[in-house]
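Notebook, bench 3.
Goal today: get a predicted structure for Type I-U CRISPR-associated protein Cas5/Cas6 from Candidatus Synechococcus spongiarum LMB bulk15M so we can plan the truncation constructs. The sequence was checked against the plasmid map this morning, with no discrepancies at the termini. Length recorded as 472 residues. Pasting the sequence as submitted so the record is complete.
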Amino acid sequence: MFTVSVEFLHGTFRADPDGTANTGQLRHGEWPPSASRLFAALVAADGTRQRCRVTDGSELEWFERLPPPHIHAGPQVYHQPLLDRYVVKNATGPANRTHQEYVARLSTLSRPGVRVALRQPRVAYCWDVEPPSATTLVALKLRAARVGYLGTSDSPVRIRVATQMPPNCPEQIFVPEEGGDAVISVAQPGDIKTLDRMYDQWCERGAAVARLQFPSLRHNVPYRSPDAPQPVDRGEVVAWLRLGTAVSGRRISSLTRCFKEAVLSQHQRIHGDPPGILHGHGCGSQGYEITRYYALPDVGYEHSRGRIYGLALWMPPGSDGAPRRQARDAAHSIRRLVGRGIDVAVAPRDDDERRPFAAHPQRWTYPSRLWATAFPAIHERRRTLDLLELTRWCQHAGLPEPVAFRSSRTPLVPGALDLAPIEVNRPGRPGLPYSHVELCFAEPVAGPVVIGAGRQRGFGLCVPRDRGEGDQ
């Protein structure tokens, strides 16, 4: 664990969240303070490149690679819009057209924005990662000790860096979550170079350089605030991977088997024996709630051919942070998959990658009422497929009850795979029927949606059919 705690010494915080404070129209200030603002304060504390005095700057490179943090901050704050006022203008030379309040001086309009009054004057940023090295930790502590304020200069702070949860931090947590109700800017790799470029231009052109001219410094991430309704835990995809070259969709069984073996092998190498939730042995009656290994094909479009471009590792509800983090580490450390008919390079997918869209999380998680199988769904029982049976499948998969469905032995969407029994059933196991299915729910359901008896191997993976942002 790695944490940074901030104590607001005056119990207030003032900052311009999006560069609109000077318009006088801002009514809500920034809360909680963004992780990118904290990073910028640490950068300014000791500079970069040759301007570093007590550090060498390598600790900033470690910091900017961190994922979005959990932010412990009280949600109940008071936003006080400050009144516009005129202040003395810092100008040289003789002053013309002066006024009585500032004799022989010029004045200019100042719009200070919004001051946030805090009930709890502490904020903690927490990362569930391996702590930094001792040298990096000391350097970050030195930078934190040199930070005098966060936001504007009338928001003095005391910052502490640690590898454990700080005492007296708020219990409420802002959690990074897709589709959250709040948006918070975070630091990302490359921000140091952008800040250096911004500083160099400021040295040349002075006040003509503004932060708004560098939109690449803002990386908005959706967060769920403490006041938002608690989401139902339907499991989580802990790793999205991209294949070096596309693989035929007919290789799904071999590919997901290689993927599973590689995850277990890497987990054994990095963290020791993998838990039963990863391999499914010893789960007893909880067989429906084990890890799933997905292959992500190109389906649903006119020219789709069902080729696999990515992989995803899904962990079931109830699995806590440590197993999920360890499984993510294992998946991200895979560099190549080799097996029967499989020899392909693998790499973690970058957040800013848009192509191939088949490997993009949005393709499989976009909320939709209609979902259709990309790979056929294996029947759980040998019986007629009706709405009651589909409802049973959805209950086992952690999905709401469908209101309608249609099924077919052949694909229902372009590019979906029409597989032979030998490509679906495992050797030495009794064969089960399989079908392509389209499900209709009463309300939009966020993916991934996977149904049937083979969902741990990626069979029954569905693609959203409603047109929208996810249909690109």
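The longest strand covers residues 236-247. Residues 144 and 429 are 60 Å apart (CA to CA).
Flagging this for group meeting.
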